[in-house]
Amino acid sequence: MQAANRVQKALRTGSGLSFGAWQMLAGSNVSRMIARSGFDWVVVDTEHGNIDVPLLNTVEDAKALVKSAKFPPTGQRGFGSPFAMERFGDITQTEYLQQANDSLLTIVQIETRDALHNVDAIAKVPGIDVLFCGPFDLGNNIGHPILDGTMHDELKEAVAKIQRVAKENEKASGIYATSGDQARQYADQGFNMVSVATDAALLPAGMESALTAARGSYVHSALNIAKGAFRSK
Asked: pTM of the full predicted structure?
């Protein structure tokens, strides 16, 4: 089961670096296409859809998350579905139960002022694997929103603090990036789990680029328009 978890494998072996993508468009086929393009992980973002996921702010929140995510004795997650183990080949329910806790990554997003204040204590909670920084929401919450792509120094310090605390507590650190170049910068800074882009941004950009190439240069387009105007006379 652990071998099937590519992001866990990446974080625990080699450089400890993984790259992922943020999926905002609904559909399992979108997930499959992103996964097959070579990313280590895909986050299916439901925060701004019809499912409301409470923000994590305190140690108590972190402990409750671990309890919900892990089977006993670590947590209190319910067991009984016969379908989960089918995804891992020929594995029995007993084997699944014995391996599941070690095969799961429990990730907490640090994106509020309270979470930032409590980040060291949150990182010390057993069962928490990754501290993931959401710089946009974090910037909004601490009074320094990211405007025109520019991060305030206090926000940069907050991001650095999250990474430092994760490392001090032997946890992986993750962060949301908006481009490949920015993702590379975060990777060079030592973040382990870095998003590269969102499907909602790449799809229109790719379509627009292809359409622009098809239409040709501005001069060529202007010439075609002129020809059209001449023919209509």
From this structure: 0.78
